[in-house]
């Protein structure tokens, strides 16, 4: 049968086939009491109290009952700390006793409910466990997904305690595999919860046309009929007969106690206005600023690495231009304009970057298309930046707008490798939750910086270079997209 056809996924809990039948359950313990182990919402991972030894099972209905038989050597009393569980009689004399356990209410959770009761005498205390069946349900965690146009594998996790069927309704979405995992609730008899976690693996083919939408239907008869909706972006169209627009990257290390940092910031932005759209900046705010802007811990680590590599000399502000140490201090705007002109002449871009940034329900998704004129190995760093952060620092009032502050890095520190092919477009994607310390998600934008191997010595100002140079960079506001851009 083809993978996109209906696949009946039968699962059951064979060990619990006799769910309606009571099994005598007792485990000798100390005098401590038991409690519910089943609190929680249906959309959370089931966490069931693990019990050992035989247990008593109840069906999931109000007033469902079972009988537990025990031998007691002396007078005894019975009590339960589980509000949904009743035990009768509550006391009795020595000998063979029969207790009736009753579920006082329906269990509306997606997982089994575990309760306990204690039968105690002067000489012994017996702890007994009762498990009430699940409420038929399924929870899909991800039902609306967006992917890049280059094709990729997707994983979707969900919980279910019922039989279900899956079908892909798009010929470009293939169901590859379905893995399952369950929670152990009884160890000695190896009995597992009926509720299982499923991990669905989907293969999404590359998209050579316009943006498209496909559906994977997950049908649990009588319980739910859900859809996983996948929106696939198109791969950006690149014109390799033209030269890609070249931008430079300024990495500025600052702190709010630093007066020259504010002067340097004004100089840099004046230069950026003089050469529009040619330079992008990312502000590393060191933790020594005293709070407010330094919640991301990567700034200190990045600066220390540069210091021990002999690139940074310990001064603040410190600026990296296209991954080369340029200055420590506040240099005038003309310096940056000259550096920009030098880059256009000596560092033409081999790559162009297009992409889209989507923020939905606190999750940020970044989709990038990278076009290259050469076959080579590059590395990429993707930063999340925030504008409009007002913070009272040295030489600036409390209304000073701190912009382009790095709040998170979506790639691994130091960059992630990406292999590019000449005259082709390569798609990559990244995702992360919006950090809790972000003040305004509407002020977020993403900076993607692409590096290639090589060294460069500036003729404008003495510099110490790293072994990679920035080939190109692009800035994408949240919930926006940019296309490939070219030189005139």
What does this structure look like?
The chain has about 500 residues and is mainly beta. Helix content is about 10%, strand content about 45%. The protein has 3 helices and 34 strands. The protein has helices spanning about 260-275, 300-310, 335-345, and strands spanning about 5-10, 25-30, 55-60, 65-70, 75-80, 85-90, 90, 95-105, 115-120, 125-130, 140, 145, 150-160, 165-170, 175-185, 190-205, 210-220, 225-230, 250-255, 280-285, 320, 325-330, 350-360, 365-370, 375-385, 390, 400, 405-410, 415-420, 425-435, 445-455, 465, 470-475, 480. The strands form 8 sheets. Strands 2, 3, 5, 7, 9 and 10 form a 6-stranded mixed beta sheet that branches. Strands 1-14-17-18-12 form a 5-stranded mixed beta sheet, with no helix packed on it. Strands 20-19-21-22-32 form a 5-stranded mixed beta sheet. A hairpin with a 2-residue loop joins strand 21 (about 320) and strand 22 (about 325-330). Helix 1 (about 260-275) crosses helix 3. The chain is elongated. Residues about 1-45 have low confidence and may be disordered.
Estimate the mean pLDDT confidence.
Answer: 84
Structural classification: mainly beta
Our count of helices gives: 3
Q: In one word, what is the shape?
A: elongated
Instruction: Indicate the radius of gyration in whole angstroms.
Output: 31 Å
Head-to-tail CA distance between termini? 54 Å
State the share of residues found in helices, binned by percent.
under 10%
Quaternary form: single chain
Tell me what portion of residues adopts beta-strand conformation.
over 45%
Largest sheet: 6 strands, mixed
**Total E-strand runs:** 34
Instruction: Name the poorly predicted regions.
Output: 1-43
């Amino acid at each position: 049968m083809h993978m996109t056809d209906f696949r009946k996924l039968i699962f059951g809990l064979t060990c619990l086939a006799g769910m309606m039948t009571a099994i005598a359950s007792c485990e000798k313990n100390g005098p401590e009491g038991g409690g519910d182990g089943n609190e929680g919402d249906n959309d959370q991972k089931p966490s069931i109290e693990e019990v050992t030894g035989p247990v008593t099972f109840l069906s999931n209905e109000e007033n469902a009952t079972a009988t537990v038989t025990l031998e007691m050597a002396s007078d005894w009393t019975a009590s339960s700390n589980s509000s949904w569980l009743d035990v009768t009689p509550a006391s009795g004399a020595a000998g063979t006793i029969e207790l009736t356990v009753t579920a006082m209410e329906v269990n509306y959770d997606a997982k089994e409910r575990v309760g306990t009761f204690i039968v105690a005498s002067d000489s012994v205390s017996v702890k007994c466990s009762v498990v009430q069946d699940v409420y038929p349900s399924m929870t899909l965690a991800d039902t609306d997904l967006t992917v890049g146009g280059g094709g990729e594998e997707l994983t979707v996790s969900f919980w279910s305690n019922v039989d279900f069927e899956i079908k892909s309704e798009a010929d470009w979405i293939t169901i590859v595999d379905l893995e399952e995992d369950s929670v152990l609730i009884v160890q000695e008899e190896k009995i597992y919860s009926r509720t299982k976690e499923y991990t669905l693996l989907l293969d999404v083919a590359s998209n050579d046309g316009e943006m498209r939408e496909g559906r994977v239907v997950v049908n649990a008869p009588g319980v739910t009929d859900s859809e996983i909706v996948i929106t696939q972006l198109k791969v950006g169209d690149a014109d390799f007969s033209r030269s890609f627009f070249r931008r430079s990257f300024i990495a500025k290390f600052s702190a709010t106690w630093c007066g020259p940092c504010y002067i340097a910031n004004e100089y840099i932005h004046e230069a950026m206005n003089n050469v529009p759209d040619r330079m992008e900046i990312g502000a590393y705010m060191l933790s020594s600023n005293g709070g407010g802007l330094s919640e991301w811990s990567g700034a200190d680590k990045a600066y220390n690495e540069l210091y021990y590599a002999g690139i940074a000399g310990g001064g603040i502000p410190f600026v990296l231009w296209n991954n080369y140490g340029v200055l420590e201090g506040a240099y005038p705007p003309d310096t940056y304009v000259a550096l920009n002109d030098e880059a256009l002449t000596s560092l033409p871009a081999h790559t162009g970057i297009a992409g889209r940034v989507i923020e939905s329900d606190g999750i940020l998704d970044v989709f990038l298309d990278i076009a290259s004129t050469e076959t080579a190995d590059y590395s990429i760093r993707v930063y999340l930046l925030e504008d409009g952060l007002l913070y009272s620092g040295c030489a600036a009032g409390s209304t000073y707008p701190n912009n382009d502050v790095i709040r998170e890095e979506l790639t691994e520190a130091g960059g992630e490798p990406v292999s590019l092919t000449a005259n082709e477009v390569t798609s990559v994607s990244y995702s992360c939750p919006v950090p809790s310390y972000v003040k305004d998600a509407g002020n977020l934008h993403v900076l993607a910086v692409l590096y290639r191997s090589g060294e460069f010595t500036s003729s404008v100002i003495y510099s110490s270079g790293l072994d990679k140079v920035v080939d190109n960079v692009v800035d994408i506001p949240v919930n926006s997209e940019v296309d490939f851009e070219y030189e005139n």
